[in-house]
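Example 3.2
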Amino acid sequence: MALFKREKGADKIDTLIIEAESGQCDIYMNIINLIEVYYLFIRSIGKNKANVILEKIYTLPINFVDTIDNIIFSETSRLKVQYAIPLGDSIGLATAIKIGGTFVTADHSDFEQIEKAEKIPFFWFR
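Structure, written as tokens:
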């Protein structure tokens, strides 16, 4: 959302995208999190403009994870129970755990506690 709204930290997301385009890193996003982004854009700017943004997202170097396998299922459940974070956040974080990746977020309120307690790398873009 920050990328397309050009909010604070969007420049850091731009850098990640450039790095992914040049093969320096891989970006993964769970399809559930894409649904969240899409419906939030529909609410804020309408379906037609949200569809334009969705098409732009599909052109980015993002690997979409569209399966909830046993690892994502169990980690999502554990994170949701242990930290009482929103389900979408739990799924995104579980996806990062599964791929051994760094979780990219600006949401300090939901994740600072988890960063301190877990061995999951975080990239804070704000």
